[in-house]
Description:
Blueprint: H1 2-29, E1 40-46, E2 49-56, E3 58-60, E4 65-66, E5 73-74, H2 80-92, H3 118-123, H4 131-137, H5 146-155, H6 171-185, H7 189-198, E6 207-208, E7 223-225, E8 231-233, E9 247-249, H8 251-263, H9 269-275, E10 297-298, E11 301-302, E12 304-310, E13 313-320, E14 325-331, H10 338-346, E15 366-367, H11 374-377, E16 382-386, E17 389-397, E18 400-405, E19 410-416, E20 421-424, E21 432-433, E22 437-445, E23 448-457, E24 462-470, E25 482-486, E26 491-498, E27 501-505, E28 512-513, E29 521-522, E30 532-540, E31 543-550, E32 557-562
Antiparallel strand pairs: 1-2, 1-14, 3-4, 5-9, 6-9, 7-8, 10-11, 12-13, 13-14, 15-21, 16-17, 16-24, 17-18, 18-19, 19-20, 20-22, 22-23, 23-24, 25-26, 25-32, 26-27, 27-28, 29-30, 30-31, 31-32
Amino acid sequence: MKNVLFLIGTLISIFSYSQKTVAEFDAVLAQWDKPNEPGGVVGVVQNGEFIYQKAFGLASLEFNVPNKISTKFQLASIAKQFTAACIILLAQEGKLQLDNTIDQYFPNGPDYYKDITIQHLLNHTSGIWSFEQAFDLLLKDIIITDYEIEKLLNSLYITNFPPGDQWSYCNSGYWLLGKIVEKISDNSLENHLKEHLFTPLKMYDTQLVKDPEIIIYNAANGYSKDINNSYKQRIEIARDIVSSRAIISTLEDLKKWENEFYQMTILNADFWKQMTKPGVLNNGEILEYASGLNSPVYKGFKLIGHSGVSLGFRTSFHTLPEKKLSVIVLLNNGNIFEYDVSSAFFDLFIQDKDTTSITPNYETTVNVPIEMPLNKLQQFSGNFALEESTQFNFSIINNQLTGISGENNVPFQLVPISDSVFVHATTPKDFYVLSLKTFTFSEFKNKQPSKLDIHVKNEYVDLVEHLNRQADFHLNLDSYVGIYRNETLNVSYEFIKKNENLFLKVKNYEPIKINFKTPYKTYNIPHIAWGGFTITFLKKTNEITSLILSSDRVQNLELKKIKT
Length: 564
C-alpha cells in the first residue's frame, strides 16, 4: 500500500511539475530551434521519468527530414563511459586489475607502456599523445583506422608527461581500453557492449557502429557551417574508432542508462562507486574526472556526466544527484554549443535563490566583479609579449579594459575581480570562475605591471603563459626561415619569407601567414582538423635552433632546424 501511495504521489508530482514548466522549457529551446537548420533532441529526466522531451530542427537537410524523439545520434565522447563500464565489469569479475600496466596487453608497444596502468587510461592521466592531434601535427594524410592508430602509438617515443603527473584528455587511452576489453574477453567490443550492457538494460537502439558503410535507419546526419556560413555535412570516415566515440543512441535509451545509475537493477553499487571515483594525480590532487565521467560543479551542485564533440555532432549528458535530475542534449548541429543548452535547462531548476544543500567536498571559486576607477584601469594598458613576439595589447575602450589579439585584431573585454586579476567578459554571467580563464598582472613598477600570467583551463587544457611588458619592436624574419624536422617521427615544417611576412608551408597547400600577435594560432589547413596549436622557437646564442609544437593533447614535439 505504501508503494502504491508513493507511486501515485510521484506521478502527481511529475505531472504537475511538467505541466508547470513545459512553456519555460519551450522558451529556453526556442533560441536554437530555427527553420531549415539542423537541430537535435533534448530530454529532461526527474525521478526516473521524462518531464520534458523535444525534437527540433532537421535530421537531414538534403531530404528535409525533421528530427524526432526517436532519432538516433552519434554520442561522440559520451561513449567513453560505456567502454569504461566494460573495464570496470571485467575488474569486478577478476579478469583484470585496474593497476595492471598496459604492456601486459601490448607487448610490442613503446617502452613507456610499462609505466602506464589501466587506471591512468580511465582517468586521462597516462600522458600518451591523443591520436587525432598527433596525426594532425605529424601531417599524416590517412584514413584513421585501428591499424593506423596502433602503428602511430607504437612509433611514439615520448609522452606529454610522466604517467599520473597531469591530466590531459586522450582518445588514445580509450582506444587502448577498447582493445584491452577485446583481448581479455576474446570478443569484439561491439558484441561485448551488446551482451553485457545494451541488451541487459534493454537499450535496443544503442549500438557501436564499426562499419563506416553500414546504413543506420532513423539516424541524424551531422552538420557544421563552413567559412561562408553554409551548412556542410560532416562525414565520419573512421567509425571504427569505436571505444572513444562511435556509438549511436536515442533519448529513451540514455534514460535507461540514467535510471540504472539510481536504481542499480543490473549494475551494483560497487560498480557505480568505481565508475564515479575521481582520479588522483601523483601529487595527491583529486581530479574532477573519473572513468569516462566528469564531476564538475555548477552553481554549487555536483554534476556527473560527459559531453562530446564529433563531426557535426555535439552532445551532453549530465545528472544532478541531489535532485535526481538529468539533462540529455543530442545535437546534429556543430554550431550549437551543447553546454549552453544543458546549462540553460539546469538553470530552470537551480536558481540563485535555491537554498537546498550544497554538495560537500566539491568547491568552486566564484568571484564577484569589482568596480575599478578609470585611472587605475589605465595602468594595465600596454603590450605584453613572449620573447620577441607581441601577444596582447591592452587599452581602455568605453571605460573598460580591452585586449586585442589575433590576426583580425578582434577586441575582447576584461572584468576585474580583484586589484590585479581579471576574467574574460564572455564568462557566463554571475559565474566568474577563477580557474576557467584569468589574466593576472604582477610585479608593478611605477604603478604599472611588468608581468602577465594568462591561465587557461577547460576540459581539454590547463596551461599558464607568462608574458612580459614590452615596447614595440621589429622582427628579424630571416632568422625564422628554414626547414624544421623530426627525423624519428618523419615530419617536417617549412617557414618561408614572402613580401616581408613569414609563412608556414606544409606540403602542397597554400602557405599560411604567421601572425606573431597571436599566442594561440588556428591554422585553417586540411591536415589540422582540430585547429589550434602553439609554436615556440628555441634559440641558442641568438640563433634559432629548433621549434616546439604543442596543442592541448600533444605536447612538446621538437623539430630541429636544418641548416639552409
